[in-house]
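Follow-up to my post from last week.
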Amino acid sequence: MHDVLIVGGGGAGLRAAIAVAEADPRLDVAVVSKVYPMRSHTVSAEGGAAAVVKPNDSFEDHCYDTISGGDWLCDQDAVEAFVDEAPRELIQLEHWGCPWSRDPDGSIAVRPFGGMKLERTWFAADKTGFHMLHTLYQTALKYEAPTWYDEWFVTSLLVDGGRCQGVVAVEQATGRVQAILAKAVILTTGGCGKVFPYTTNANIKTGDGMALAFRAGVPLKDMEFIQYHPTGLPFTGILITEAARGEGGWLLNKDGYRYLQDYDLGTPESQPVKRSMELGPRDRLSQAFVKEMEKGRTIETEHGAVVHLDIRHLGEKTIDAKIPFVRELCLKYEKLDPVEELIPVRPVVHYMMGGVHTDLQGATTLPGLYAAGEVACVSINGANRLGSNSLTELLVFGARAGRAAAEHARSEAGPSAALLAQALDEERRLRKSLLEKTEGSERVAALRREMQGALEAGAGIYRDAAGLEASAAKIQELRERFAGVALDDHSLTFNTELTACLELENMLELASAIIESGLERRESRGAHQRTDHPERDDERYLSHSLAYREGEARPRIELLPVSVTRWPPGQRTYGR
Amino acid sequence: MNDTVTLEVFRYRPEEAEEPTFERFRVPARRQWMILDALNHVKDDLDGSLSFRWACRMGVCGSCGMTVNGKPVLTCATYLSDAASSRDPVRIEPLHGFPVVRDLIGDIRDFIAKLKRVKAWIVRDDEKPLSEGAYLQTPAELARYKQYSMCINCMLCYAACPIYPLEPEFIGPAAIALAQRYNLDSRDAGAEQRMDVLSRDDGIWSCTFVGECSVVCPKNVDPAGAIQRYKLQATADWFKSLLMPWRGR
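User reply:
Got it. Predicted complex:
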């Protein structure tokens, strides 16, 4: 039994664990992760983490960039807290050893990034997430306190008396199903890009934490807002960092033309201009790609339409110094050298602006349950996230949730033994419906592919009611067919098919929340574009969507007004 | 090139059989497939019970190390066609040197424990308050340890090391390279504490400088170089303590 249990060992989870250990070394903190923490998807983040650090930059500017970048769907009190604490968190990480890239005088270097008026993105070459994650993991190891449940998969939350009091988890190596009791639980399980077929995300991004909260009655907020990163490699979906554009890269159509100038994003200059052209926000750049494709100006390849990212003019020296990983990835996965050749890229699903509804401390509507990082929606990202805000978000809200959970745990009585019965029920369910079942007509991978196809078709960059309805019906069908799944693997020893099946069950829940939220929002804002409702409608929809689970039926959607403090809704303008 | 490639895959299901077996699977010979894509094809469409670890598929998480045609590689970064052209059927086994849990999955808890032992974190006697900002570190100071900070913990180096299977107490290449990463970081003051751990028999002195670890490292960390530099350092420190015993260590 623990005081604080953290589900997910990525950047947010590790930061929360350290925050708990520092708040009170006597607190019993544990981290449960379905993979070893250094495998968490934070590791793949490349470009950087934003915080105000240069003397010509300001709190107001970072706030305004974030809020306008989010098309005014961000909660401004949350953005203010985030921007205020960001520099301190990045300095703390530096003290813990993070190898931030430096200016010649030894001070922190910053680079320009999409949608940001000034340079404020701290970076560690172009492996920022990797270095942040390893710094956090290695720092966390220095504390005696944490118990590490490495490669344990959480299947449900333990809820009793209206409070979250722990989890039920499977120890993957042995198949043992166990209740892990805790006075407070923090979800830091990341996003759910694998709901879509083409994504920068790793295999493990299946939204488990979002589903756990959803099934426990906690609403999921703004699920319709899916970020497509403009530059993913065509076959693999591997991320080519925005930093390539921050350093001066260009996006070209099949005529070698910098097409973004046709989409109210400014005029092309030889040097990158902030908040303009290739440094516009991700939603607008991904939308421009779709328009170019409709005009027949993209390049056809065996893996679909692409445009070209041109970084040749940066020169080998700059590329090797500032974006070496980009070069490595192109050489390995596309067999081309971007020093001399154009990189084929296209938008791929990258990030969930939406997630578990929390307040500014990371508390959810279920007492004892907290969430931070991509799994959560505070919301600081609103309808579209600016690049390099999310790595900082892990630290700011991971720390906040850790402190809040620690505070809660100190005042809580221990969980009740009655909860152990819930674990036995869960074990029975897993055995009967999955492990011991030999008859079934459905396969995990086949259902998963159908789900991904339905999301891509109906909930892509541009949506309409008909497409969303068709996808909603398909997802309902898949949820029913899921009962007919039979596994090939009946083993208890590291059964990864069982894990994949549970992940699919989670993703089907989230798919229905995404589509239903998209249907409810009859406007276009940020990353949610409805061709049948192309204008932004602040009168009806300056609000978050809240999706509530309704058993086997489609989720119910309510609206929650956005919190506006200093920045009344305005026009998003880039390039002028 | 043929239309298909045959994989010969190590299977170990302890509930079914005490001994491991090899099982063959025929997979499409797709030009852009890595070994990992072929394994996923097997799992998705041929035999869902094949178990292996993977996550990022872009060579940065360190999950997918396996032995392919006798060599430790990242399966997400090794082309199926390259492996097939050197040996068909392509033989896929778990990483050598680690106890096998199931199929292609090895037990790596020993490595995690070693990360703790070498104190792979910043050690300082005094901390500057955060309000005073970041420590200064010039690009040259960063360059001193940068290479050793690139380790993705994939453990290909442990699999390649001839000592590790014979002497499992050996702290090993990645852990020692990580210790060096902190020793050489201008912000760290923990070299002495790490010396106590590293200069024991199960530390650097188990290494006989075969160098295979650096050959197989997919991130050019050069752990062999880290260990050899460290041996020089440890020896120099030992001489100094002999010749000048009054110097505080």
